[in-house]
Structures are given as C-alpha cells and as structure tokens.
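Anyone able to model this chain together with glutamine?
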Amino acid sequence: MTDLHWRSATELAGLLANGEVSAVEIAQALIERADEVDGQLHAYLHRTDERLLEDARASDERRASGQTRSRFDGVPTAHKDLFVTKGVPTTSGSRILEGWLPTYDGTLVKRSAQAGLPLQGKLNMDEFAMGSSTENSGYGPSRNPWNTKSVPGGSSGGSSALVAAGGTPWSWGTDTGGSVRQPASLCGLVGVKPTYGLVSRFGVVAFASSLDQPGPLTRTVTDAAAFLQIAGGHDPMDSTSIPQAVPDYLGSISGGIEGMRIGIVTEIEEAEGTQPGVKTRVGEAYRRLEKLGAELVEVSLPSFEFGISAYYLVAPAECSSNLARYDAVRYGLRVEGPDVVSMTSRTRDEGFGDEVKRRIMLGTYALSAGYYDAYYGKAQRVRTLTIRDLERVFTDVDLIATPTSPSTAFELGAKTADPLSMYLNDVFTVPVNLAGNAAISVPCGTSPDDELPVGLQLIAKALDETTMFRAAYAFEQDLGWAGSEEGRPSL
Ligand code: GLN
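re: yes, here you go
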C-alpha cells in the first residue's frame, strides 16, 4: 500500500481491523520513511527498529488470535527522550545522562505498550526540555520538515519533526511552558497540553514539577483525543495525578460549536511582536469559528503580560532543585576527580549545557535567602493572579482563542545568542501552564509571509478537554487542511 506513512493513527487502526495491512507492513513503511528523511531532520536520538519489528510481529499474532489489546494494537509510536524506557537509552537530551539504561518503564510508556503500540524509538529534544528550538540538545539540533534551514520548535522538536514528516502518526512530548503546543504550531500539527495532573508524570524526567505535563503531537485532532485517552487517567505512582478516569472525548467530538462562547484576549490582540502573517491567519481562524456558530467575546487577562517573568522564576527554581540529583554517582556520565566534590562539579560542568547551567544559576539565586520573597514569592503571587484571571473569564466563556506562537519557524541560529528572544516564543502558552488549564494548538494554514505553518491555541477550563477537542475538531474539519496535500511538507 502506498503512502502508508501519511495515514493517521485512526486510519491505520481501520486498515488493520479490515485486514488490509499488517502491523509488520506498517512498521516496515515507517522504517523506510525514517531512512529516507531522518538524515535531514535528526528527529531521532535512538531508533529501536528491531524492537519495533518484534512488537509488530507480536501484534499481528494477537490480532490473528482475536486478542488485540486495543483498537490501535499495531499502530507504532515514538517518545520524546525524557520518557523513561526500560533497557532503552534515555538521555533527556543531555550528555549527563549518556549511557543510562533505565530499569523501568514510565506510566505513559507502559500504557502505550499495554494498548499494543510498537515502539519506534526515542526523540530529540532541548536538554532537560529547556528551550524552544531543540538547539539546546546535547546531541545536535533537529530540523523542520517544512524548511530544513529552520527549527522544528521545542523542546519536543524531535517529536514534532517526525510526525510532520510522516515518520510516525503520533508521538508524545511534554509541555512545561509550551513545549508541545509551540513545536506543533511550527510544524503544522495538533499538540495538546492536558490539564495538569491528567497524564501521569511517573517516569518523566523532571524539569519543573508543578508545570510539567505530557501531551500528544499528531496530524489530526481525532488522533490527539484518542492518544490522550490511551495514556491519561489516574496513576497512583504520581502524587499529583487527578483521581479520575479519562472521559470519552471521541463520543462527542463531532458535536460542533454552535452557541459556544469563545474569548478573544484584548491584551494579546493589541500586543506588539506577533508576526503580521501569524495575525492574518489567526484572525481568519477567529472568523471561521464565528462562521461555525461560536460567539466571539472580548475578554481581558491582565496577568498574561507577566506570565513569562513569573515562569522564568518558578521553572528555574524547580529545575535547580530537580537537577541536583545528577551528582555523578547515580546516573550516566562520571568525570573522575581527586575527591567526591570535584568529581560532582567536574561532571556537572562537562555534562550540562549552557542553558541548563543558566537556569540552575537563576533558580538557585531566586531561592536564596534574602531574595526568596522578592523573586520566587512574587512569581507565585503572579501565578495566583493568573489562575484567578482565568477563573473569572471562564465564568463567561467556554474557550479562549489566541495565536499559539508569535512567529512561524525561525532559522537555526537566529535566536541562540539572545536567550530572552528565545523565551518570548512561549508568551501565549506559558500562562496556561502557570494556571494548570488544558489547551490545544491546531493548524490554521501557512503564513502568507513565509509559507510556514501557523497554529491557533484554544484554552479550556481545567478538565474540560471535551469542549476543547470538539471546537478544535470542528475548526479542523471546516478548514480541510489536515490530511490534505497542502497540509504536508514536501520533504
Ligand atoms: N521554552 C520553555 C522553556 O524553555 C518551555 C519549555 C517546555 O515547555 N518544556 O522553559
């Protein structure tokens, strides 16, 4: 069957159910696709081709004996390299974890396997998920399949590059400040930041624990909803996991948006710094939502302006504590020294990249005696204001719409010398992590400026993914971009 690699996970599940294709054939098609494109993209840090074929054979056997584990048994996936995988290298994009072979599977990895999904491998990312371009990876950057001179976004950039290039129908990333939604936007994909606590963080290498949340990257809204349903829901291994099962998102996904109230944020529409082409496409997206029966309502979210400032205190503070565990004793790299202190400091000096060191220093400073209240304490107060702002607005509207990112994919090297301009990529996504709400990025075509993809962000109430998916689906179906020739890079 031709073009198997461009089929969505839902389509592949249908082909498998009808016996039109085997799991081994799908696996082989994706191995061929990786051979064809990954030299240009560097989406993978580690391919598990043999394991993939083995898993696929086992899936075909299960299907032959009528014992499939789920509808998606035999549809492969690949994970961002911070999901802990038993016996498979897990680096989190850092040299400091080089050579570490975990002894267990994280919950998300386990649930994917329990649904029968063969494992394709581990995907590139900014070191410890700190970045917006994958240029902070300790193993070299990934590239955007829409233009290989440009970044695929980050930190889940290997995940977005591979899905956009037809190398896998779906992958998982993590979103601490935008790292699923921003790369989805830059690669023309659907990306979800679920409500904090919906998807387990057990076996996810920690960056900023009160913000980290795994999320799927896919080419269609239906696949994103289906994958969240597979991996989400309560996990006793994560103390912040919400003790609830995942509702049936797919049952109501085609219900339409007639009568929904969607907030448009005055401060964001008036802000400078968003590319004109992004404004054009996102403006058209708002009008499309209106045409589909939604009512657009102007809303004000004054605290959003302080999101980036608060995030770059809270996230580094938590990271400085989380990354203390890389002591040269327990995991990965060890650079020997005359005593244990010099061994630890030499290892950390060599093993961590510049951005990670910058964050550890920022976080340690923000938490130090005498500065704690002025920096960390104040940032936490902004966080509370963000939560209240959103609560207030959500008494009036069902969803909030914004651009996902102020720009399309930028060229490699364009922002590496200026960390602040890199941080500003997440200006529209970060407040959602601070508050814990759910949000999705859905493609709205390519920018008239540079023909690169633009994303629309839809923010929902906490645990209201159902409404979010319904609106994103209605928008996607009406636009007709996903799954069309136009919606694919020519790589
Ligand atoms: N770009 C942001 C950062 O560097 C967000 C990263 C993320 O969501 N993991 O912190």
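The domain at 4-261+396-487 is CATH 3.90.1300.10 (Amidase signature (AS) enzymes).
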